[in-house]
């Protein structure tokens, strides 16, 4: 029962997110809007923490598996990238590492500045 | 032919995905290498099996639409993690904002500056500018910027894949130790795939990474058109 209640609440927020996304030109995906709305529903006390906890933890703890079909789908796109494969992978790796380092450092630097005050 | 019949059906394809994933998780635990992402095992295993039994990738993907669908609800569920760690978010709001602003600007500028160095032309610049954000947002940004949407989608996923694989090791090398900073680094650079990895590091890392997906997406969408008009793309 509790699993279905949790699943119902999460799917409901996905559907609401999708509707808002559709009405606003699909600029922000429905799942991201659903995430924000679920957060607001919990804050407002409309949704009780207890009723979504189990399902939400199951879905987030095992998130990696849900990306597998999309990753296999990349095989189909091989023709598009094989020409410049190495340069392309190098670019993605370097820029991902740059963004990772700088965003992490920006947060730690902000802390240091705040502590000094 | 018999073997092909045994494998070429929906339950067998679901079994393959879940089995390969469990194998990846199991091998990480057994080997004691925390840096070993389950994908390193599970993706090659799946590719090998479908090649071996002559199963078309389309059939595999179609049979796994249930797993693919669950990605949406799992992103929604990140809202629960945000709620759970609302206190941490409130206390770190300045750090979170500075990380996301720095990350989103660098994400766009680094692609523009590095593409010529690596011999990639304007076609790649336009398709890759939004590659640090979650797939649907990246596709929309690329579409309005006039870039190739398919190349954008592939780049986003491979980018996240790379981040998820090397993330924990890179964070160690960069001296990023604070859980909130780790979550920001993973989410800003590798969106959902990075978040899946961040959740394995800890609940705070996961929640902050999930929040970064939303913030990065929104900021990058504003920055890309501004930057393109500035440099005349």
Key words describing this protein structure:
heterodimer, A: 117 residues, mainly alpha, 2 domains, 79% helix, 0% strand, B: 233 residues, 13 helices, globular
Number of domains of chain B: 2
Instruction: Give the DSSP E fraction of chain A (strand runs of 2 or more residues).
Output: under 5%
Number of E-state strands of chain B = 0
Quaternary structure classification? heterodimer
Biggest sheet statistics of chain B: none
Indicate the structural class of chain A.
Answer: mainly alpha
How does the overall form of chain A come out from the CA principal axes? extended
Order of SSEs of chain B, N→C?
A: HHHHHHHHHHHHH
Class inferred from helices and paired strands of chain B: mainly alpha
Percent helix of chain A, as a range, is over 70%
Work out the helix count of chain B: 13
Spans of chain B of 5+ residues with little confidence (pLDDT < 50)? none
The amount of helix of chain B comes to over 70%
Low-confidence stretches of chain A: none
Compute the average pLDDT of chain A: 90
Give the tally of β-strands of chain A: 0
Q: How many structural units, i.e. domains of chain A?
A: 2
List the helices and strands and how they pair.
The complex is a heterodimer of chains A (117) and B (233).
Chain A: H1 2-23, H2 30-44, H3 49-61, H4 68-73, H5 78-81, H6 85-116
Helix pairs in contact in A: 1-2, 1-3
Chain B: H1 2-7, H2 10-31, H3 38-52, H4 57-63, H5 65-69, H6 71-84, H7 86-91, H8 93-117, H9 122-128, H10 135-145, H11 149-173, H12 179-201, H13 203-231
Task: Explain this structure.
The complex is a heterodimer of chains A (117) and B (233). Chain A has helices at residues 2-23, 30-44, 49-61, 68-73, 78-81, 85-116. With 117 residues, chain A is mainly α. Chain A folds into 2 domains: 1-61, no CATH class; 78-117. The model of chain B has no long low-confidence stretch (mean pLDDT 91). Chain B is globular, with a radius of gyration of 19 Å. Chain B is an all-alpha fold and 233 residues long. Chain B folds into 2 domains: 2-69, no CATH class; 74-231, no CATH class. Chain B is built from 13 helices and no strands. Classes of the chains: A mainly alpha (117), B mainly alpha (233). The interface between A and B is large, with 76 and 107 residues.
């Amino acid at each position: 029962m509790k699993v279905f209640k949790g699943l119902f609440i999460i799917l409901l927020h996905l559907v609401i997110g999708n509707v808002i996304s559709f009405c606003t030109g699909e600029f922000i995906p429905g799942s991201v809007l659903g995430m924000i709305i679920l957060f607001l529903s919990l804050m407002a006390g409309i949704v009780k923490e207890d009723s979504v906890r189990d399902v939400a933890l199951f879905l987030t703890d095992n998130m990696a598996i849900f990306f597998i079909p999309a990753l296999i789908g990349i095989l189909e796109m091989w023709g598009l990238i094989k020409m410049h494969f190495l340069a392309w992978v190098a670019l993605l790796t370097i820029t991902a590492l740059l963004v990772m380092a700088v965003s992490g450092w920006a947060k730690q630097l902000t802390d240091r500045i705040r502590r000094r005050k | 032919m018999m073997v092909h019949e045994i494998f070429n059906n929906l339950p067998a394809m679901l079994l393959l995905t879940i089995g390969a994933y469990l194998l990846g998780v199991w091998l990480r635990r057994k080997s004691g290498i925390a840096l070993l992402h389950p994908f390193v095992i599970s993706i090659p295993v799946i590719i090998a099996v479908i090649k071996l039994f002559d199963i078309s990738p389309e059939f595999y993907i179609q049979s796994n639409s249930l797993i693919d669908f669950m990605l949406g609800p799992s992103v929604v569920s990140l809202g629960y993690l945000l709620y759970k760690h609302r206190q941490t978010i409130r206390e770190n709001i300045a750090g979170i904002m500075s990380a996301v602003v720095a990350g989103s600007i660098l994400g766009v500028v680094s692609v523009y500056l590095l593409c010529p160095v690596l011999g990639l032309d304007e076609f790649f610049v336009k398709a890759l500018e939004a590659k640090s954000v979650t797939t649907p947002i990246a596709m929309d940004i690329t579409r309005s910027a006039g870039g190739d949407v398919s190349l954008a989608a592939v780049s986003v996923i491979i980018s996240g894949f790379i981040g998820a694989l090397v993330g924990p090791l890179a964070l160690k090398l960069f001296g990023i130790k604070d859980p909130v900073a780790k979550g920001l680094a993973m989410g800003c650079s590798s969106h959902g795939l990075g978040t899946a990895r961040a959740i394995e590091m800890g609940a705070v890392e996961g929640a902050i990474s999930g929040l970064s997906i939303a913030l990065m997406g929104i900021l990058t969408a504003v920055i890309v058109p501004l930057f393109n008009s500035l440099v005349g793309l």
